Amino acid sequence: MNRLGGADLGYIKVGVAVLLGSLATFCKQYCLIIALVAVIVFLDWLTGIIKAKIAGTGWNSERGHDGFWKKMACFVALAFGIFMDFFIPVALKTGVNVELPFQSPFGMIIGVYIIFNECISICENLYHINPKIMPKFIIKLLEEAQSKLESQTTPSDSDQS
């Protein structure tokens, strides 16, 4: 008998296989960007704490609370982008019978945008901690890259009419 506490092991195995297979399929596309965003958000938080310590401002619970919710908003934005990657193609195909000629890039674009913002913040924090360890040109390069990303993803006024 293949039973575990009254449950049939066959159903459990199938359920676990479906769950893990679905997770693996999802992770194939999004795990790297989610992991990179998580790491960079942590590094920004860490450099912010060090900067506060070096500057002598110390830990401010209100500022920390606000910062926490801003970081959570980054993850909500990323989750929304990933949702849009799944929703838009399905909505277009079932609603108006149109297929996108490309894979929906919202999750990746939002993830990369978050990473650029966090990298700029980390560089600024490091520059304030010790100006000798962070060349200003790196911050400028990141800001230029972010600006280019923004200009490529922001609709122009003529596109909106």
Automatic annotation (TrEMBL):
It is found in: Membrane. InterPro entries: Phage_holin_4_1 (IPR006480). Keywords: Membrane, Transmembrane, Transmembrane helix. GO terms for cellular component: membrane. Pfam families: Phage_holin_4_1 (PF05105). It is a multi-pass membrane protein. The chain crosses the membrane at residues 9-26, 32-52, 73-92, 104-127. This is Toxin secretion/phage lysis holin.
